[in-house]
Amino acid sequence: TWKHKYFLLSKTDKATKFELAYYTDDSKKGKCRYVELDQFVAIKTSVSAGRREHCFAIELRKRTYVLQAGDFQVKNLWVAKLCEVLRQGTIFTPCIVSFIKCCS
């Protein structure tokens, strides 16, 4: 089932770790879930998800998350930011936050 979620990319309390938290709305009251990105394997930009457009996937060792951005620009912003923070030795700049759909 695809649901609308509000995503927030941030550093954890450990300086080199990142997480992707997702909420039901932009108030961020009560975190729905979070994904620790230390098990990161790859980001896939060409993902088939039926008739859904602007999808990408975050592949971790034990699970793959398929996300759908609202448009091509938002998808590219998310992919670029995720690639930036998941490479070693990069400086983290402010988070990108937006509504994107998630297959959960």
The H/E string reads: EEEEEEHE
Q: Can you give the helix content as a percent range?
A: 10-25%
Distance between the termini: 6 Å
Mean pLDDT: 77
What's the total helix number? 1
Give the biggest sheet.
Answer: 7 strands, antiparallel
State the secondary-structure class: mainly beta
Q: What is the strand tally?
A: 7
Cα gyration radius (Å): 13 Å
**Overall outline:** globular
Q: How much β-strand is present in the residues? A: 35-45%
Instruction: Pick out the low-confidence regions.
Output: 88-99
Strand order of the largest sheet: 3-2-1-7-6-5-4
Assembly level = single chain
Task: Give short descriptive properties of this protein.
14% helix, 104 residues, single chain, mainly beta, globular, 7-stranded antiparallel β-sheet
What's a quick, concise take on this entry?
The protein is mainly beta.
Task: Draw up the topology in text.
Elements: E1 2-11, E2 18-23, E3 33-36, E4 40-44, E5 55-60, E6 64-68, H1 72-86, E7 97-103
Antiparallel strand pairs: 1-2, 1-7, 2-3, 4-5, 5-6, 6-7
Structural summary, described in words:
The chain is mainly beta. 14% of the residues lie in helices and 41% in strands. It is built from 1 helix and 7 strands. The protein has one helix at residues 72-86, and strands spanning 2-11, 18-23, 33-36, 40-44, 55-60, 64-68, 97-103. The chain has a 7-stranded antiparallel sheet with strand order 3-2-1-7-6-5-4, covered by helices on one side. The longest helix is centred in the last third of the chain and has 15 residues, at 72-86. The model is unreliable at 88-99 (pLDDT under 50).
